[in-house]
Specification:
This protein is α+β, with helices and mostly antiparallel strands and 354 residues long. The chain folds into 2 domains: 49-184, Phosphorylase Kinase, domain 1 (2-Layer Sandwich), CATH 3.30.200; 186-348, Aminoglycoside phosphotransferase (APH), C-terminal lobe (Aminoglycoside 3'-phosphotransferase, Chain: A, domain 2). It contains 9 helices and 15 strands. The chain has helices spanning 62-66, 76-90, 146-161, 194-208, 220-233, 240-250, 254-266, 310-320, 343-348, and strands at residues 6-11, 17-24, 29-32, 103-109, 113-119, 133-139, 168-172, 175-179, 183-185, 272-275, 284-287, 297-299, 306-309, 323-324, 334-335. The strands form 5 sheets. The protein has a 5-stranded antiparallel β-sheet with strand order 4-5-6-8-7, with helices on both faces. It has a 3-stranded antiparallel β-sheet with strand order 1-2-3, with no helix packed on it. A hairpin with a 3-residue loop joins strand 4 and strand 5 (113-119). The longest helix is centred in the middle third of the chain and has 16 residues, at 146-161. It is globular and about 65 Å long. It starts with 5 loop residues before the first strand and ends in a 6-residue tail after the last helix. The relative contact order is 0.13. Pathway: Phospholipid metabolism; phosphatidylethanolamine biosynthesis; phosphatidylethanolamine from ethanolamine: step 1/3.
Length: 354
Amino acid sequence: MQSSHKMTCTSDRDGDLDKCVTGDPNSGNLVDVPGCGDSLMVDDERHPRTASPRANGDDDSEAESHQDGRNVDVDPDTRRRAFNWCRDFLSGSWKTISEHEFRIKIVSGGLSNLLYMCSLPDNVQPAGVEPQRVLLRIYGAILQGVDSLVLESVMFAILAERELGPRLYGIFPEGRLEQYLPSNRLCTEQLGCPEISAEIASKMARFHTMEMPFNKEPKWLFGTIDRYMEQVTTMKFVREAHIKKFNKLMKYDLPAQLESLRSLLASTPSPVVFCHNDVQEGNILMLDGRENSSDKLMLIDFEYSSYNYRGFDFGNHFCEWIYDYTYDQWPFYKAKVENYPNRQQQVSHTPPPT
């Protein structure tokens, strides 16, 4: 049975998208949806009570890292290297300041990426087209390999040139300098807003029509699942409670279900296109100052992007309507199956062809 509770996006006095409310519209009992519209500005952080749990287990995604600012001193070596990178790659006013004047703040730190916001001092303005501040990404300890870094760097540069991602200001063996985007990340409930859903569809369509210089075979999906399956089936436990849970899980015969899925996709006429593969609310930014624009969203985090079945991108995104990853108690997410979009919701927000 469909719930009578519906999610609605409201606007402020200027018409800007302001917040989401949920409840029964017939009774007038509407309440604010928590978490929607949280600012991603480093200088005005809302610190989470726990680590930011994610579906993919990565707390180093750009959306998460933007909201995880912290006032921790940067070590002198990192500060010196960051200063040199900004001076050499950004030029302009960056070449006129001293290391003492250089401003750097930790945004997020982890094993896969270390992120910092670097900026000019308040009394120094850009001399030309150079930015006032940038996001510095330094590759971390668990490097995925040279090949994957090359592919990600090429992908990031191409998407930046096509204005589908943040601008790229500099790239070097240890990391890169990216555009810093004052923005808000979406919350789960906002995915159902008609105007937001329509723009997400438009962004995905642009991805799906791109020609990219990568392997055109859809190897990513089952390559990833096969790795996960191998990890699951070879796990060993000592505690009796864990052994019982594992044996119960194995009764579902996951390998057989995987083969069934593989056969189903092989017989499904879904074209292979360039896919984002992770269009969830945490990877969608609403850019500051564009709340009234039809081009107010930007997709980020391209680490999973690859050629894949187009239907996967659609299906994965619609599944994200169900999950709330901001839940701060175990298992650190909540699922509301009733929020899965019906057929009308899935197709009614598609923009007309141009």
